[in-house]
Structures are given as structure tokens and as C-alpha cells.
Amino acid sequence: MTVYRVANLTYQWGNDARLIRQLADGANGDAPADVLLLVEARDADNDPVDVAKILPGWDVSQDRANGARAGSVIAVRRGAGVRRRWTLSRLLSRRGRKVQDRYRRVAALRDHGITTRVAVIHNPLPSTGRQADAVESTRRWVDRQRARLRIQPRMRWGVTGDFNLHHAAMRTDLDAPNSYGADVMGFVYGHGWGDVKRTHQEYDGTDHAVLTLTTKENR
Predict the structure, then answer these.
(1) Could you tell me what percent of the chain has a pLDDT over 70?
(2) Does an H or E element contain 20, and which?
(3) 2-215: which CATH number, 3.40.640.10, 1.10.760.10, 3.40.50.2300, 3.60.10.10?
């Protein structure tokens, strides 16, 4: 089984290092994570939070060129049996009213004989005038994954992070079959995930729900 955990670091609160370690190791009886999918990995000064430094036993995909690029992070625990291939940060939406550029982080993760292509995003609020651009950018990414499935059937895809809208609305916008979430945090995914155990939990250090998905081998 592979445990994915999705969280917003809520940079205004501080204590990011403690929160990240909790997410990795589990809290309140939660199992340790194999994969962390994080957004807002920046501090109150808009400087990157160095997730690799906080998690020395993990492989971390994060662009720390600036706070905007550093916001979306994918981390894989070494020894979890998950092979990974990173990509560069891709622009999700350009800056708008009271919002900086937003970036998407993508990885191809290989476990249980399946390739999981996952995108970590943080949609701008509707009031910024940029949310529709971000959603459309993600829709184009999802369409590319659907095209991949025609030549790579043992693949599955998912989009996760802080949607700043309900996961069901995001699922509709992406024309996707499945979604799960709590508050603004969500996970939208296509076919091929098999049995997925989904929970959400409150963690000390963030005012957003933390999502946990435990996956088994695709059947």
C-alpha cells in the first residue's frame, strides 16, 4: 500500500518544520506517509521553505528559486518502494489582484507496477481574477494524461492541492470521474486507482484539512 498525504502549510502560522514532520510521520494515530503533496511551502516573507532540509530521509521535488515557485512540493520517502521522475515547475496562472504567479508541480511515480502522474496545484481565489486561468491550465494537463492512457494503459492520474473551490466543482471543471476533499483541499482523479481509502484529519499547524489517501495495487 502507498500512503499519500495532501496539505497546505498555511505559512502565516509558522512552525512549518514541525507540521511537515507530523505529516511525514503521522499524527493522531495516522500512518506515516510515503508521498507528501504540499502547497504554500513559503514563509511569511515569501521565501521558500526548504522541505528537503526538513526531511533528510526523503527525495523532494521543489523549485526554491523564489516563494512563488517553491509553493508546490512533491516528496517521496526513500525506501518506500516508489520510483519517481520529476518535472520542472510549470506556470499555473499569472499574477493578478493581490496574488503572485502560481506554479504546478508534477511527478511520475512508479509503484505496484503502475505509473501515477500527479499534479500539485494551488488555485488562486476567485477574487484575484485568475482562478479560471488556473483551472483551464489544469484541464489542459488532464487532457494530456487522458491522451497518454491510450498508449500507457497501466497509468493513472490525479490533481491535488488547495483548489480554493469545492472538490466537486473542480471535478466538474476537469470532466473527471472521481474526487474527494474537505474544505478547499481536494483530490480529483481518473480511473485506475483501484480501492482507495480516503480520510481527512485536522493537524496542529494548519487551518486547512489534511487529506490522506491509501492506495492498493490496481486490479
Answers:
(1) 98
(2) helix 16-25
(3) 3.60.10.10
